[in-house]
Fold each of these.
Amino acid sequence: MLDRARRASSRARTQLALMRAMARPEASPAWSADGASLEVTNGGERLASAPAALVATLASLGLIATSASSVPALTLAGQAWLRRQLASDDPFLAQHRDIRRRQIKSAHGATATVTVNDAESPLTWLRRRKDGNGAALLDDTLFEAGERLRRDYTFAALIPRTTADWSNSGASPSSNRGASPAGAMRDDVIAAKQRVNRALCGVGPELGRILVDVCCLLKGIEAAETGLGLPQRSGKVVLKLALAALARHYGLTAQPPRAAARNATLHWGAWDFRPEF
């Protein structure tokens, strides 16, 4: 009984090590010369190895795709299984996440490394899709503009509350009398709210609504179309126009050139100058 438990534990460790190695972007899985094992390497360094019998079992479970004409790779079910095994909180919640480490830059130029869930953002979904010419639906500039608005919106606590607010339940009515809500906020929260307001005013109310729905409230494109009364399949086009205007507001793209006549000086005159008719 003890030997069986040890073999099962060793088999589980080998399976986890193999699938973790295959999930790495730079991994190169290949069968050994005699076909007895699957080797995963990276630049000549062996990351993991598993016997062919174990690989066949994982393939029968739908966790690994193997065929004579393709390189063995993790299936979607295998990727979900691996995320569950590596999850530290809720395995089944982590299965639907796309957790990555990313560096972000604040408005003051400071950088920080944070953990983000790329699966929750509709902009990430759009960024991974291609148009008819093979180009990404959203370029880096439009994506960064939307993410910047989302960071400020979230930091400023503008997302609608879905639960009761018990923060002032123990305070007497007189204790809060005369207190300014803005006075209790930190300066950076107020600044974030001001940046959101300026951004939405800069793009206008017609385009600002879809930015709030998709970028800030993380609604899908179809849900945003329905909520805003837009024609079907027009949400992506309207969203790209809104993100382009937002990127210009943030200074990520150049301002469109104005007509020369608007910038030209028509006439200089003294304080008592009067035109002749």
Note: Residues 89-96, 166-184 have pLDDT under 50 and may be disordered.
Amino acid sequence: MPLVDHGKALQGVSGQDTTPLDFTFKSSRRWRVVNDVQVTYGWAIGEIKVFDDPNCQNPLTPISATGYETTLASPNRTIDGHPYTEWRAPCHICEPKEAWLTLYFDVPVTVMCMHIFQWGDRDYAAKAVVLQRADEVSQIDDTVVDWVDVLRGHDLKGGGWDDLHFVQCAPLEAPNFGLIRLTNNGFYPSEATFSCKGIRPLTGSSISTCKADGQWSDSPPTCWEAIHFIAAGSAVLFVDVAAFVIYYRCFMSDKSKPLTEESMIPQDYLGKWNSELFGDFTAEPKLLSLVVFCPCCRLADTWQQAGILAFQFAIFLPHFFFCCLPCIGSYFRNLMRKRFNIRRSSATLDCLSWSCVPWLAAVQEAKMVDAMCVVAHEEANAKEAVDKRKAEADAKAKGPRSAGPRSASLAPSTIGAFKVGLSTKTGALRKPKSSLEMISSTAAPA
């Protein structure tokens, strides 16, 4: 931004790397500029301008200036408004902090920005300077007892204007129901720390840093009220329970029974995974979608069908121990290997599978367990059918051998008014008379 000096625009003002050193912002009647690096052929300054704001908009007017020792060129040339008039330090090779130029004011002022025009682009210009404030003055001889470093400028270039100034970030407001603690009054490098009142949770970054470009690193956070936190937690819990119920009713109601120790699986299906870890899973889009979008339910489903853990308990593991999921998944994968007689090459490989490609490991295990449950169910049905046919065959084989003794026990006998027994002519079971026949036969002799 161009700076106005006595009606003339000073072009070429460039922002340099500036380090604030003091944030007390005290006032003083004496300020000075000191070379912070060695200057080879004497330090030459054409003009100095100071301001009392970090945006360099409110200029301050020194009443006089003095320099290191006495030279033919008056130090007041640095405040005469003409950059082509210069003051040169008497030292031929000025060591760091050896040369200085002091500005005097009639009242105490606070300098927060300084523009300096140095002559020469290499040998007569200091690449780094320090702005100092007189903090304590002797009451006897009016000399400065203590100088405080306020600003340091780096990478300055001679032959043009350079600036040293404080950088202030935009004011921050504390969040609702929250507090803010600010360091350095919001000037770079300032840090804002946010906190919430009471037990309200804070969402967002609790710390924001003022950067050299005048911007905060993070936006202010939000302090949630307890009712908002409870409502959000209830909503999450409701969605979680709804997903659990929907999955259980839609995807587990028609599944085969989970595997048990008594489940029979043919040897042809054991000894290896029935799908590769990095195989083509596009043939199972439904299974892949469940693993990606509803991993907790699908993992619990797999572990229950494998006979490892009940669904209602297994679903809590991915929820509350998500950070330990690679270890949990590797442990359960080892149990599946033992159940299906799959050789375990390395525990590290199983852990890496669950750490690097957990969705692929979950799909592989889910496909394996679902297939084994179907096979075990078919084997159980086949065994039940064989046992049933065997029982029927045994019953038929035992039937004729037991007919003799049973027929003997059915000797003719009188049960009330009915006679039941074997016919002496045909050996067939004699049919008892009906009630009407019995009545007519007893009434005829009368």
Note: Residues 178-223 form one domain.
Amino acid sequence: MSMASSERAAGTEEPDVRSRRRGGRDQPTMIPGRERRRLKAESVLMRLVATAGVVAIGVALGAILVSQDVQGWIVGLVVSLVSVLLSAILWSSRRL
């Protein structure tokens, strides 16, 4: 057993290593870290609200493009690509 692993086992890690492991930051920032983990129901609700926002953006984008007499296949392509991109960003986020 190496010295580093014996220090970890004894709980004598450096404070900055422990804070990084818990999601803390090395340097202070304008946005403080979370004091508690978000509840599962809260996380699901936030994702549903954000998903509704993605749908609303797609509807608005489609309406704008149709009002400008853009061909249907281009409207479908643009709206679907924007929706997929926003959804990927949304669902990959660990903050929601």
Note: The CA atoms of residues 3 and 20 lie 21 Å apart.
Amino acid sequence: MNAENTDYGKLSVLVIDDGLPIQSLIKMTLMRTGVHDITVAGHGQEALSQVNSASRLQAPFDVIVCDWDMPIMNGIIFIE
């Protein structure tokens, strides 16, 4: 697949990280590649709620970027 011909603007991405600087960095990087449908969560429990809501709306995320060391619910438990 040629990355130059890929329309990343159609992707829906969920970014899960408890660090605001990391959230911003990932969001900025995604936006530079053309992704604009970006949802951010600060921990796994918040992200799980967003995943469930998106599924109910029949609009699941295409990509999930997940930190594994977070409070409340870490990334490993979120993935399980």
Note: The first helix runs from residue 20 to 32.
